[in-house]
Amino acid sequence: MSPLQDRNLLLGVTGGIAAYKSAELVRLLRRAGARVRVVMTGAAGRFITPMTLQALSGEPVRQELFDPAHEAAMGHIELARWADRILIAPASADFMARLAAGIADDLLSTICLATGSPVIVAPAMNQGMWRNPATRENAALLQRRGVVLWGPAEGEQACGEQGPGRMLEPADLLRRLERHLAGDGRFAGRHVLLTAGPTREALDPVRYLTNRSSGKMGYALAEAFLAEGAQVTLVSGPVALPPPAGAETIAVESALEMEQAVLDRVNRCDLFVACAAVADYRPRVVAGEKIKKRDETLGLELVRNPDILARVAALPAPPFTVGFAAETSDPVARAEEKRRRKGVDMIAANLVGAAEGGFERDDNALTVLWEGGHRELPLSGKRQLADRLVALIAERYEPGN
Ligand code: PMT
Questions:
Q1: Does ligand 1 have an atom closer than 6 angstroms to the CB of 217?
Q2: At what angle do helices 382-396 and 216-227 cross, to 10 degrees?
Q3: 274 Cα–ligand 1 center, Å
Q4: Using CA positions, which residue lies closest to atom 21 of ligand 1?
Q5: 2 pLDDT exceeds 90?
Q6: Cα separation of 233 and 226, whole Å?
Q7: Which residue among 278, 281, 302 has the greatest number of ligand 1 atoms within 8 angstroms of its CB, and so is best to mutate?
Q8: Taking the alpha carbons of 11, 146, 17, 162 in that order, is the dihedral positive or negative?
Q9: Residues near 82 by Cβ (< 8 Å), separated by ≥ 6?
Q10: Does residue 324 have a known ligand-binding role?
Q11: Is the pLDDT of residue 160 over 60?
Q12: What are the sequence ranges of the domains in the chain?
């Protein structure tokens, strides 16, 4: 039996070309046994008719906040209480902005403000609108307040552009809803904070020191945790990857910025996974202007960066901590030494700079170590490897420890 059987689902439809997909979504939700009531914004009515959604849901579709006939049957506050879950699909940039601002000027936004039930948002918009800092900040704010974000996906857009902004497919939304309601993801209800990518340590306005890291391993881990129902916050150094759909992604440059972003959020997380290749040193002085070539040699004085992982593990009430160890030789012994010295629960050792695996490539292999045990995760694609590592972390992770 589907976890949606006999559940009350309020589907909010806002204005966007993806509104046509809500018809299929209603059909799938009904087939899974859910009771579905649809609330449309005014703009949604320009893309799909209420009649279609009414026929498919078998319930009257609501559009108006001040509608005496409907309010007499089920008022907007009753609708807010009726819903076990509110799913807004598609959610336009405008609707997300209104939700973030707490504006209640139509039926759907009023219900979202009044409800005590989880609100899930499936964004759909032009890629430029999704990438705009205003939308990114609204999405991050909503996530911080507990709104669940699913998507958007990358791909070809109705406007002919390419990029992130496509609403997830109805079948994907259905699967996620089922997992969400069943709470069966191994990390459902858990908050995972991850670091990924390199850091850049500025020498002057045009040059920096850095480590080799594409972010692929860390981003794959973020996706694997999301697939297991976790709420994911990803603190990422500069990489050329799109942010994982559904994660709150914080972009940073230097180790000091990464440390601050982690410390600002670590109290709210259950697990901390440090996959970033953090530069161990930074220039003592950052030149205000481009350093000129004068002499044959140039000396640089470097100072140690803080060790973010060790700092988190040393907190009075640390989350479950998982580190990585990138080594060019003897990875297992060196990783074990790091695990003990930094006081982390688990560490994943990988060989870097060799013929296969490590940084920048699509494949990797890990030896994962913990107190009294270890496991080999053989060479495979980073996403598959991330799934295996997340399954192993789930075996070792005990909430409250
Ligand atoms: O990004 P990819 O191209 O996919 O490559 C993946 C990877 C090889 C970068 C990744 O698998 C990996 O090994 N990441 C850790 C790299 C590293 O910096 O390892 P380390 O042995 O120097 O550090 C040990 C641990 O301490 C790591 O968890 C690191 O994130 C953390 N650390 C290190 C230094 C520091 N100042 N702060 C930290 O938190």
A1: yes
A2: 60
A3: 7
A4: 325
A5: no
A6: 10
A7: 278
A8: negative
A9: 8, 10, 37, 74
A10: yes
A11: yes
A12: 8-183, 191-397
Q: Which mutation among 273, 275, 368 tests ligand 1's pocket best, with the greatest number of atoms within 8 A of CB?
A: 275
Q: Does residue 324 line the site of ligand 1, with CB under 6 A?
A: yes
Contact 344, 321 (CB under 8 A): yes
Within this chain, domains 8-183 and 191-397 share the same CATH topology? yes
Nearest CA to ligand 1 atom 23: 325
Beta-carbon neighbour count of residue 267 at 10 Å?
10
SS3 of residue 92 by DSSP:
coil
CATH architecture group of domain 191-397:
3-Layer(aba) Sandwich (3.40)
Rounded distance, CA 40 to CA 64, Å? 9
- Stretch (H or E) spanning 175: helix 170-182
Residue 35: band (very low, low, confident or very high) from pLDDT cuts 50, 70, 90: very high
Query: Tokens for 130?
Result: 């999704």
pLDDT in tens, 347-360: 999 999 888 989 99
CATH for 8-183? Answer: 3.40.50.1950
- The verdict on the CB of residue 313 being under 6 Å from ligand 1 is no
Nearest CA to ligand 1 atom 10: 275
36: its two tokens: 């579905």
Q: What is the pTM of this model?
A: 0.68
